[in-house]
Structure formats: structure tokens, C-alpha cells
Design brief:
about 100 residues, mainly beta, 3-stranded antiparallel sheet, about 0% helix
Length: about 100
């Protein structure tokens, strides 16, 4: 899945794991492509189907970000997607 947003946008975007988030903890992590520094994105579970919502705050710099959802359940850590990353692309805003 790829999400594209404009710089300074402030609306919710969604990511999905194949895991019911009930009773789990999770982190939505991003990093600018080519970087090793992770950014923790605020996220809330929106359904029992593994969907989480992150509301863009307009503060991410223009660029392409690799995104993964890390779910901890009873001491086990599962990362979604299992192979590769989701993509979040922030593009220039004319205004």
C-alpha cells in the first residue's frame, strides 16, 4: 500500500496488520528512505481487523518514508507487512 500526502496536510491515514489489536500494544514506525533513524508516529486502533489510524500533523518533511506496524502480543513481536514496507510519500505543497 502506498499513501501520498502533501506537505502540511492534517488528515487521518490508515495502515493495516492481519492481527486483531485487542489486548496488544503497537507502534507505527516510519523512516525516511535511506535513513536508519526511525520516527514513531502516533496511532490508534480503529477496528478489530488490525487497522490503525495515524493523523498527519503537517510536520513530516517532503520525502518517501518506509512504514511498518509493530504489534506486541503476550511478549511476541510481529511486524506488518512481513516482507518490505508500506510507503508514505510526502510531496511539495504549492502553498
Amino acid at each position: 500500500m502506498a499513501v501520498t500526502a502533501k506537505e502540511r496536510d492534517t488528515y487521518p491515514i490508515y495502515f493495516t496488520a492481519n492481527k486483531d489489536p485487542t489486548g496488544t500494544t503497537f507502534r507505527l514506525l516510519a523512516r525516511k528512505k535511506g535513513s536508519k533513524t526511525p520516527i514513531v508516529l502516533n496511532a490508534i486502533a480503529t477496528s478489530n481487523l488490525g487497522e490503525v489510524e495515524h493523523t498527519l500533523t503537517g510536520t513530516l518533511a517532503v520525502g518517501v518514508y518506509e512504514v511498518e506496524l509493530e504489534v506486541t502480543d503476550g511478549g511476541e513481536i510481529m511486524t506488518f507487512p512481513n516482507g518490505g514496507y508500506e510507503t508514505l510519500r510526502i510531496v511539495d505543497d504549492i502553498g
